[in-house]
Amino acid sequence: MSIEINNESGIEVDESALQRLAAYELDFLRVHPDAELAILLVDEAAMEQLHVQWMDEPGPTDVLSFPMDELRPGNEDEITPPGLLGDIVLCPQVAIEQAKSAGHSVLDELLLLTAHGLLHLLGFDHTEPEDEKEMFALQRDILVGFTLAERRR
């Protein structure tokens, strides 16, 4: 599995934890081991520019996902074909503020945003209440499973 992380944010981040989570999630969702994923961390100005350009919304946001090959999760009988999943763009500065509001660590917030962004790359969305329920339950299961796996490490 190819997971490339590029930190251009100016904020120190535990990149190895983000990489381990992404690998865990891709395995959990039965994505082909030859799939490629890029995670980019940017500052608020770069994130705001992307947010305006792609979502037509002002200000920086926490995470954006840019799917490439429209891969979907596998199932118990098969895995996805290999391909380019796409890019997840994270903004640590926004994550810092959200972590304070949520009462957890910045790393926990970045892990949540990574899991969320990866689900978007795999076709999940939360625009409709039923879709939101499914996506957020899966996101929670992934984060709980990852946390348990990390404790056993």
UniProtKB/TrEMBL annotation:
It holds the Pfam family YbeY. The keyword Translocase does not apply. This is Endoribonuclease YbeY. Belongs to the endoribonuclease YbeY family. HAMAP family: Endoribonucl_YbeY (MF_00009). The gene is ybeY. The lineage of its organism: Bacteria, Bacillati, Actinomycetota, Actinomycetes, Micrococcales. It is an enzyme of class 3 (hydrolase). Its EC number is 3.1.-.-. Keywords: Cytoplasm, Endonuclease, Hydrolase, Metal-binding, Nuclease, Ribosome biogenesis, rRNA processing, Zinc. Its main location: cytoplasm. Zn(2+) binds at residues 116, 120, 126. It is found in: Cytoplasm. Coiled coil: none annotated. PANTHER family: ENDORIBONUCLEASE YBEY, CHLOROPLASTIC. The keyword Cytoplasm applies. Its cofactor is Zn(2+). PROSITE patterns: UPF0054. Binds 1 zinc ion.
